[in-house]
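= Tokenised fold =
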Amino acid sequence: MFLPGFGTIFENNIIMKNTLLTFFLLVVLGVQAQYSISGTFMPAKDYKWLIAYRLKPGTQNYIAQTKVQNGVFSLKIPEKALPGTYRLVYAVPQEEFYFDVIYNGKEDISLAFDSNNGVSFLNSKENILFNTYFKKIIDLEQQIVDFYTQGNTNKKEYAVIAKKMHSLQKSYEVKSEGLMANHFIKSNEPYIPKEYQSIHDYVNSKKEGYFNALEIDNPILQASGFLTNKLVNFVFTALPLEANTRKERQEAMISNVDIINKRISPINTKYKVHLYY
């Protein structure tokens, strides 16, 4: 026997169940979408507060803040916060007491900060890859510097270091595929000589190839300290070996500023002002 209204009641029940299910999923997804940056500061007595900013080309936006209690903190990132480079300020002046982290909006970040050793990451694929790569590539670049300063001319030793640099660079480019860290790692590719060079040829080649991999127009790099540091480093360190006097070094730096000025001419004015400041 057909019961009037049964179909409507049944349909309403289905709609109600679907609505409740949708609401439940939204709640779950909302919880999952909120991540945190947590960790420790040592010595604990020296740190009381932590403020997070998201860097943008030439500026930064306030994101969140939290107390550091007994050296421990947990900073909740707002759900709508965008991925990017986040600057964590732990003292004043803010321009001096900070460190940067990569926040991709897909993972929690845990870290340990020590006033003597800086920051180390305990959890975060992005930041662990980023930091590990830079520590290793800087170490290999230092080996090249040591090779020259020690007056070493052993071409086999030189080739071994260059090969390690090439292998490390390519392996981390592959490891970081799909991550924000990949932008930084690819743009940081150093000059790697294909064969032994005299120190003069090496210095000249390094300067000529400095911008080969650097993506100056990349907004992810502009919204970080990485690009600014790379450009500033070029101005003050890409100097000819013959520049011995203060005047010669100053002239070389001014020439480097001209090179930078041409390189950044197409990018936005706000970032240029920030860089020159």
